[in-house]
Amino acid sequence: MQFIDLISQKNRIRTSLLHRIEEIVDHGQYIMGPEVGELESRLASYTGSRFCVSCSSGTDALLMPLMAKGLGPGDAVITTPFTFIATAEVISLTGATPVFADISPDTFNIDPDRIADAACQARDKGLDPKALIPVDLFGLPADYDRIEAVADSLGLWILEDAAQSFGSSLRNRRAGRFGLAAATSFFPAKPLGCYGDGGAVFTDDEELDFLLRSVRVHGSGTDKYSNDRIGINGRLDSIQAAVLLEKLQIFDEELVSRQRVAEAYSSRLRGKLVVPEIPEGYVSAWAQYSLLASSTAERTTIMDTLQKAGIPSVIYYKIPLHLQKAFAGLGYGEGDFPVTEEMSGRIFSLPMHPYLSIEEIDTICSVIGSCI
Ligand SMILES: *Cc1c(COP(=O)(O)O)cnc(C)c1O
């Protein structure tokens, strides 16, 4: 069994995709070709954003807005410690300092009530809190109604980390529409993935769109070899754009299938384990189906039993960011973010993709049922 099955999906789009790739091989515009512009306008209309700037990865999609806004030493950016390393790594890359705020145990997303405290801590360290990066973990949007109110009152601008949540929504707003800018990833394992690395930034701000396009290509000015600011090589390849254009055709159908898989898991596992509950008004993109065992020992038993039955499971995230060696310099220690630490000791994720059959779900759930 696969944790994420990309082959069944490939079989659905294979013919049309190979045709598109052949066109690119022939037209020769391998980087930032016409497919890239087509993709950007399709993605912008999908999310409802005015602008979409595609780029070379989700990490660069997070980094580029921070660079465009001129973040640097002395600035603090508040984020969650319960996420993939890239969310906070990009803050350090600009020279700014990540300041963490603990999560809500029911959604695994940043707790809006802890943000003001994090801003105070930043000021106590002599830093100037400038921005906030909420993460839509496992595909579920963060609590933007409350986050936006808190950010406004603290004078922070928001960068949504939508790397896992493309396709999700909160009432009538899709992921990619929250904050001043939003970043998503097209890494193959994400809900919308390409066949390599890719990402995109969304914004409604015309000036930021202009700056992002410059940062994406070495801070380019009006002329190709004039450079107005420090940037990166952050372009998207035409072939990756073509893969995404083909996958977008079946993406909404796949979201429905993911929802069906999640419901099938939850109806079988609710009451035995803590299953993910989606709050009213939210739609998850189900990047992961993550649940909680009652203890670390029970999680180990379940994961070992699954493995013996040939079923993969993964822990996202075993080491919270404040306890990662790379961030030792920030001065955090064990006990600083109790909710995050508790969750990282109990959480694990089951296979999740649109092509998981009810028979496979039955097998997975009965293996789990046999050992708890
Ligand atoms: C995957 C991911 C990223 C980084 O995306 P890449 O395309 O791998 O660079 C950033 N944040 C989160 C939450 C992610 O899951």
UniProtKB/TrEMBL annotation:
- One MF term in GO for this entry? pyridoxal phosphate binding
Q: Does the keyword Transferase apply?
A: yes
Q: Which InterPro entries match?
A: DegT/StrS_aminotransferase (IPR000653), PyrdxlP-dep_Trfase (IPR015424), PyrdxlP-dep_Trfase_major (IPR015421), PyrdxlP-dep_Trfase_small (IPR015422)
**Organism domain of life:** Bacteria
The biological process GO terms on file are:
polysaccharide biosynthetic process
Would the keyword Translocase turn up in this protein's UniProt record? no
Q: Which residues form the active site?
A: 190
Task: Give the UniProt keywords, A-Z.
Answer: Aminotransferase, Pyridoxal phosphate, Transferase
User: Where does the record place the modification N6-(pyridoxal phosphate)lysine?
Assistant: 190
The family this protein is said to belong to:
Belongs to the DegT/DnrJ/EryC1 family.
What name does this protein carry? Answer: Aminotransferase DegT
Q: Which organism is it from?
A: Chlorobium limicola
Name the lineage. Answer: Bacteria, Pseudomonadati, Chlorobiota, Chlorobiia, Chlorobiales
